[in-house]
Amino acid sequence: MMTVKDIKDFNAAQTLDCGQAFRWKEQTDGSFKGIAYGKVVTIKAEGSDLIIDGTDESDFEAIWKKYLDLECDYGQIRKSLEAIHPILKEAAAFAPGIRILNQEPWEALCSFIISQNNNIPRIKGIVERLCRSFGEQIDEDCFTFPSAERIAALEPEELAPIRAGFRARYIIDGAKKVAGGEIDLEAIRRMEINDARYELMKITGVGIKVADCTLLYGLHRLDCFPLDVWMKRAMAVLFPEMKPEDFGEYGGIAQQYIFHYSRMHPELFV
DNA sequence: CGCCAGGTTGTCG
DNA sequence: CGACAACATGGC
Length: 270
Fold this sequence. Notes:
It is a single chain. By secondary structure, this protein is an alpha+beta fold. Among the domains are: 2-71, TATA-Binding Protein; 105-218, Orthogonal Bundle (Endonuclease III, domain 1), CATH 1.10.340.30. It contains 13 helices and 7 strands. The strands form 2 sheets. It has a 5-stranded antiparallel sheet. Strands 6-7 form a two-stranded antiparallel ribbon. A hairpin with a 2-residue loop joins strand 4 and strand 5. Helix 4 (86-94) crosses helix 13, helix 5 packs antiparallel against helix 8 (168-179) and helix 5 (105-115) runs antiparallel to helix 11 (208-218). The protein is globular and about 50 Å long. 37% of the residues are buried. The model has no long low-confidence stretch (mean pLDDT 97). It binds a DNA duplex through residues 19-20, 112-113, 115-123, 125-126, 163-168, 170, 204-210, 213, 226-231, 259, 263.
């Protein structure tokens, strides 16, 4: 158990249930239980403190501090974003505790391949079955996200039980290219943004949007601004005069504020 | 039943 | 080049 005192600009629900990650489950007490980097933890806020159950100082320093992006000054970033547009200011004020997670790159890539033409509850279900079927069991009812190597060895029919539909062969193609070294996610992390996109789009089933989600959520490229159906609506209705690049080096964080704000206010788009 | 969901692909004109 | 159906699956 670890307590992080006096934490600012972080809210577990806003961060873990805003559509950037698909494996965190809200518990009856309002905490969130999840798995990353092979470890299971439960995260909750108590007043201005952040409590992480199932970890210790060493794992916190090695994993969770980075995973939750606690080293980044979101107060400062939010202030700079708020100056860009009044509606962005409103969206940021609506969920000021959102942070962009540092997810495992392959998990982010695979999860967003699954996300295409799909809805969030069903994405969560497919990811859950994927982990339960092919991940490593950590404890009762807890499984890791299966490695690219594990998935690369499967035939499409073996993925049928997770009910990913037409995405099954995309998942396997991605796994083969990552496991085989044809695509080096850590090298992509440091590439110029368009080269990075081009590399990821060598995978069948990865277009610009899945590439940008992988870059933002898996490789922490905060300037990536993924445009899904919600963001396209939001841009057309709320920011008609703006383009993604106008949101600057922290556009990805702006995108997450806007995405969450839009999903919580569907009446804006009827 | 038809439409939609954090899209992408292949195929037309 | 741009438009558009098809792609599995499940909820409404």
